[in-house]
Amino acid sequence: MAATRLELNLMRLLSRCEALAAERRDPEEWRLEKYVAALEDMLRELKKQSSKPAPELLNEYSRKVDFLKGLLEAEKLSSSTEKALANQFLAPGRTPTTTKERTPATKTVHLQAKARCTGKMRSELLGTDPLAIDDSEELNIRKRKGLVSDEKQSAVELDAMLQHHQDMQEKLAEEMLSLARSLKNNTLAAQNVIKQDNQTLSHSLRMADQNFEKLKDESDRLEQHAKKSVNWLLWIMLIVVCFIFISMILFIRIFPKLK
Question: Which segments of the chain are extended strands (E)?
């Protein structure tokens, strides 16, 4: 689908903002902040349109606008340490804004911001002026090599630095994925063990209830059997006593007393 006029204006303004962010700006520079605010308004309008771009492209625009907004907020911080920490959490864009870019401009701006913060922190530790150091280094480089070769070398170094950061991010992502898989496996194993223990405990409780019922039935039967045995024995003893008594009477009658 062809890009609308609003999307083209957004891309042009975004490219201009990326170029301004890459430059050394005066602390009183106000254009970038106004441009970023205009980008936010244009992005909201673009999301409301019926013929809006693909969701992946909208997410990329939002990612770049949020990066520029976070970069401006980080520059307003007073401490170099706070600026460096804020820059660490910024997420640059993944794709170039224009076809002329080999690498996304936001990644370049991100690396430059990190380098500036690192230089300021180092100068604060060493007690030197970072602007004087940067100016002297730039003059020396321009004296040794021409501007064209300097740009080529900077591009090569930037590509190498970007590749290094990308490799580190991929390695970190793989480690996090491995840890997540390990945690998932451990959680599943723990769930299986707990489930088996619950099943064993439930089976043991059922067996205990069954054994208790059987013991109760056997106890009742034994009690009834004991009662029956006592009754029969009592009747037998009564019969024997009666028989003996009758036998004695008959014996006395049959055999009278001798005179």
Answer: none
53 in Cβ contact with 46 (< 8 Å): yes
Residues 6+ apart with CB under 8 A from 42: 6, 9, 10, 13
CA 18/CA 233 separation, integer angstroms = 112
- Distances in Å between the Cα of 169 and the Cα atoms of 115, 137, 143, 164, 175 are 18, 30, 37, 9, 10
What is the rounded CA–CA span in Å between residue 96 and residue 198?
56
Q: What is the pLDDT of residue 153?
A: 59
Express each pLDDT in 126-139 by its tens digit: 665 554 445 544 44
Cβ pair 75, 42 in contact under 8 A = no
User: Does residue 109 contact residue 21 with C-beta atoms inside 8 Å?
Assistant: yes
Calpha distance 30→39 (Å, rounded)? 15
Q: How far apart are CA 251 and CA 228, in angstroms?
A: 35
Please report the sign of the dihedral spanned by the C-alpha atoms of residue 56, residue 15, residue 13, residue 65.
Answer: positive
pLDDT tens column, 24-80: 777 677 788 888 888 888 888 888 888 778 888 888 888 888 888 888 888 887 777
